[in-house]
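Usage

Read records sequentially. Each one opens with the input sequence:
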Amino acid sequence: MTSVSENMEAQDERPQISRPSDFKSLITTTSASQLLKSDLITEEPMSEEQKFDTVSSYIWSDEDNDEILETIDNDEPKEEAPTDRPSWANKIEYLLAQVGFSVGLSTIWRFPYLCFHNGGGSFLIIYMLMLFLVGVPLLFLEMAAGQRMRQGSIGVWKVISPWIGGVGYTSFMVCCIVGLYYSVLMAWSLFYLVQSFQSPLPWSMCPLLRNSSDFDPECERTAPTTYFWYRNVLKATDEIEMGGLPVMHLSVSLFVTWLIICISMIKGPKSTGKMLYVSVLLPYFILFCLLIRSLMLEGAHFGLKNLLAAKVPALYSVQVWRRTGNQLFLSMGPGFGSFTAISSYIPRSNNCVMDAFVVALLNLTASLTATVFVFAIMGHLATENNEKCYLRNAETVLYLIASGVLPAEAHPPDSMYHDPSSIYSTWLKSLPKQTKDTVLPYMTNCNIAHELKEVMEGPGVAIVAFTNITSVFSGSTFWAIIIFVLLASLGLSTMIGIMQGIVTPLQDTFSSLRKYTNLLTVGVCVPMYLGSLIFVTSSGSYYVNLLDDYWVSLPLFFIVILENIAMAWIYGARRFLADLIIMLGRPISPIYRWLWCFLSPFVLLVLFVSTLLHLSLKTITYLAWDSSISNEVIRIYPSWAKVLLIILIIITILPIPAYFLYTLIGVDFTVSMIHSGTTVIFKPEAKGNSPKSNPRLQVRKSQKKINKIDKQQGKTSLPCE
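and closes with the structure output:
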């Protein structure tokens, strides 16, 4: 009899029947006994973990890392990337692509809005805590998977765990649907950008009636910026049920949007990288300029004081944690498959641990910069509105004095018009008590904190808020151009990331398409443009709200949860860390194993369940324009919109159980063929011109060293224990 160690050595040298997606089967008519003699299948009983997870890696400490690295240096040359795959021209372009996808439009407006309404400084504390304990490990996970496998989302998760191979297809579908409506956001920004080359700005005043000197009465009942948005840009209907044809000027703007995206993507990473120098670096420069300019405004300090004031009760609020988690994942973008796709074009030796931190820090920097800018602007607007309130009260007092209602000693000082903020309070306190009691019933209560809340509530649509901001600065035309260049650039860089999540999996699944990158890019952009036209109809913005507010979060959470579980508990977090140590040639902190195995799944599951309950119990509503009263009103989505929402959620998640059943049927078929006396000979499936077989996340010689470490330490635990 052979010893146990000899059996283990021999088992490492023979083919392993480990994963249904890693091999093709060639069926011949040979008896099962001959199959056993051929040593392809041993008669030793194997557990389920051994059948489908034959390599067990345990990364317990930095000492284990050192032993693995020693094995790499002595035994195993580093694996080179396939030469037929395109790559980024340099590391800077790669990082720009990752940062550009991560920093989107929600970073600029939604983050400051949530910060104000969810505890100010407390929100920032929770966000940064979740960013570094959950966000960074998940970014690292997706980047490392794409970098190691050199494939998009579809191929990566089939290899890591074929049981959840459908996750890649779900990510692909999410990218397609999000790309349809996200391109419309960029089209809106482009339309505003073109309209900004006018003086005065078209949204700064109400339009005149045709053949008349009177202003449009519908506009006079609301703000000119709000009227311009609903009536001139969207040509919005009063309800979602009222459809219509695509709006012409938005259709043209959308066509230009997709043309820019197509040109940026048409040559693959080479052309995309050059565009990213503008679309990613320019927004940071503009944000910095806007920040400096906003800090010079009167009242900016009041806005910043409210930003830094942490509300302790918010730290214990489940709703605040849920909203913070939603913002983190929707802003950074794990689950789309774009980080995986972008990383697949970088050499395997790239330090993806540092990249994850860089992307997270730059995302946080953009969020904080935008927040300081918005709070400074809103502090200025609140101060202005409060001073206007003081002056209105002074005018009311003067009128009542002239009418004989109030005594002459109540007359406000003339200096109030030069410095209302300081003079008003002094004047009011100096009035005799009897006069003050007579004056106060006729005056409005002016409260700067209330004014700040009013301006932060603002219009229901973020882009209208930005048109309001342009009026704050002198030279509003110049600043309008700057702001909408910022929004258009952010939209473009995010769309490039989304398109990478679509094009890369297609090229990996159908390798022949890699020879026709130009045709593939055009072939994707044209139907995407046609599909986006539904969102530029008169009721199209209501569909955008439906998808962005109620649909996108659930599939993304579901995807990220399964990715985390597949890597940490099915493939094995220890094995994955061992593979990365081998790939990078440097030690990696074992803390990632604990985060992947325990903290991240727990946080993601809580967020998923709380979001699901929130959507189930909440009536889904949208902000609509009511032309009869010239104001925004909240309406309830009709029942068919709810059905549409459920159908979209099911369709996007459906590939996951479907592929699981497909894999299960394949495994059952293999087992039944063995029992029926038919030989199943497994051969590696070569892809393209690569001399290697399907790239599995394991290196056998180094694995022997890891197993030797385990045997010495007596470790026989599960992958995450």
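Summary fields computed downstream for this record:
- The beta strands are 23-28, 621-626, 631-636, 679-684.
- The two ends are 33 Å apart (CA to CA).
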